[in-house]
Amino acid sequence: MSKENAVKIFEQKQVRTHWDENEEKWYFSVVDVVAVLTDSLNARDYWFKMKIRVKTEDGLELSTICRQLKMKATDGKMRETEVIAI
Q1: Nearest 5°: CA angle at 33, between 76 and 22?
Q2: Residue 78: which pLDDT band, with cuts at 50, 70 and 90?
């Protein structure tokens, strides 16, 4: 697997990543990171509800600080997913 689209394993869970050579940054799938940090059965739903809660309570839209990139989904198709850079 190339460095650009590598899957990292953390606590026995897969975290999809993307290396942007121009920006020299790693991007991590937010849903995958949420799954690792929360042990949620449905990380996508957890992230969705968290975005609503933060917007309601703080007026901050988390989607605006996340970029969307195409990453391979569990069904093998490339789908856009929210990512965060580090």
Answers
A1: 75
A2: very high
Residue with tokens 């809660």: 53
Record the pTM.
0.81
What is the token pair recorded at 66?
Answer: 């996340």
Q: Provide the domain limits for residue 20.
A: 3-85
3-state secondary structure 15-72: EEEEEECCCCEEEEEHHHHHHHHHCCCCHHHHHHHHHHHHHHHHCCCHHHHCEEEEEE
| 42-67 confidence digits (pLDDT tens) | 999 999 999 999 999 999 888 888 89
Q: Number of structural domains, the chain?
A: 1
**Residue length of the chain:** 86
